[in-house]
Write a structure and sequence with these properties.
Helix content: 25-40%
Structural class: alpha+beta
Strand order of the largest sheet: 1-7-4-3-2
Strand content: 25-35%
Number of domains: 2
Distance between the termini: 7 Å
Length: 167
């Protein structure tokens, strides 16, 4: 008996994202499919996982485009929240920006810059003896951009699934 492995499992997700050139490909009688067998131990049970890649699903952008758009909306919300923050010093601002960029898998940040933020001035004209407003902190700016390989990566990931068997 075999069953489909949920991609919510960390090991399954890693396998579907993996470079298959390092795996031994198994023979498949169906033209549309490619197969790789992997010995796996899950929950203390030795299993044989079969990574299946469908070429017709790989060519179908409708499978992954809506998911990409949803992901980008969420990432843009996070980026907007980050750009709204005022940091005490430039290194803190850059560190927060780097942490955000490290969390990105199929995107990167473009047009990145750090700006100084000044305290709000009181209404009216500043007197001659009044010093200019002090720097309040630093704010980051950047634009979320897709990597060149985004479409290829997502089509490859969405065209794969795993079957598990203990036989």
């Amino acid at each position: 008996m075999s069953t489909r492995v949920p991609l919510a499992l960390k090991k399954a997700k890693e396998l579907t994202h993996r470079d298959v050139s390092l795996l031994d490909e198994a023979e498949c009688e169906q033209e549309d499919y490619r197969l790789w067998e992997i010995e796996q131990s899950y929950g203390g049970v030795e299993q044989r996982w079969i990574l299946v890649e469908s070429q017709s699903r790989k060519a179908d952008a409708a499978l992954w485009e809506p998911e990409l758009e949803k992901l980008e909306r969420g990432l843009n919300r996070e980026l907007k929240k980050l750009t709204g923050q005022v940091f005490a010093c430039k290194p803190d601002a850059m560190e927060a920006l780097l942490q955000f960029e490290e969390s990105l898998e199929i995107h990167h940040l473009g047009q990145v810059r750090v700006e100084t933020v000044r305290a709000k001035q009181k209404r009216g004209r500043r007197g001659k003896s009044t010093p200019p407003t002090a720097i309040e902190g630093y704010r980051v700016h950047g634009i979320l951009e897709r990597r060149e390989t985004t479409a290829e990566t997502l089509s490859q990931q969405r065209s794969r699934f795993i079957l598990a068997t203990n036989q």
